[in-house]
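Hi support team,

I'm filing this because I wasn't sure whether my run with pyridoxine-5'-phosphate finished correctly. The job status page said complete, but I'd like someone to confirm that the output block is well-formed before I use it downstream. Pasting the exact inputs I used:
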Amino acid sequence: MGAIRLGVNIDHVATLREVRKSRYPDIVEAMFLCERGGADQITVHLREDCRHIQDEDLDRLLLSGRLPINLEMAFVEAMVKKAKDWKPFSVTLVPERREEMTTESGLDLKVVQKKEALFKQLRQCTRVHAFIDPDPKQVKLAKDLGCDGVEFHTGPYSHAFEDALRGRNDSALKRELEKLHRASDEADRLKLEVKAGHGLTIQNVPGLLSLKGLSELNIGHAIVCRALILGLESAVREMKTVMSNS
Ligand code: PXP
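And here is everything the job wrote out:
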């Protein structure tokens, strides 16, 4: 098996821009820096409410052609139409609720199954993955539908990891890991690509690396937050230099 790919989710670079409607931070510059750091792809979630990533961001990221783009999107006609125009490297279907802070659960593929014709349109233009809970039944549905792979929702794992760190509950972490192992064994057996994402950090990633067939992790919030900590000192120094030179 080859090295596990890293997709960097840069939604929150756009979040920082959108809170002020400023020109910065520039999403394409962020992509270049991710590439320099070794990212294998850029992941963006174009939400229906456009709270962070905008259509124009997709235009610019795709035009730059530097890294493959994985587009996370809701399974609705309007988004499928956009994906058909953009033809990103891959699409990950995610559930979307307007009031949620972030994607809170995996997609129930029974919903996708009801709109098979729409799924086929999407499948004809790019590789399609489904963001699902680590549930062998959902894995089987992904295979039956014709998905290229699945991305397991690791949010519950990351919460359980935090609880275990605080000495609260070790058994929940064990349970979440067992679910992820069972589901990835099944996905690998069915020859689906196995990916994982949500809530992943430098602390909790090592615990996932032995998942069978794991080929990709998609990580956003922790990397963007870490970038602030690693870069704040330089940004302050840059401002002080401007002040003292003026
Ligand atoms: N994968 C999917 C399908 C997601 O929806 C998200 C969040 O947008 C991520 C990965 C990244 O999660 P996080 O920002 O917690 O690393």
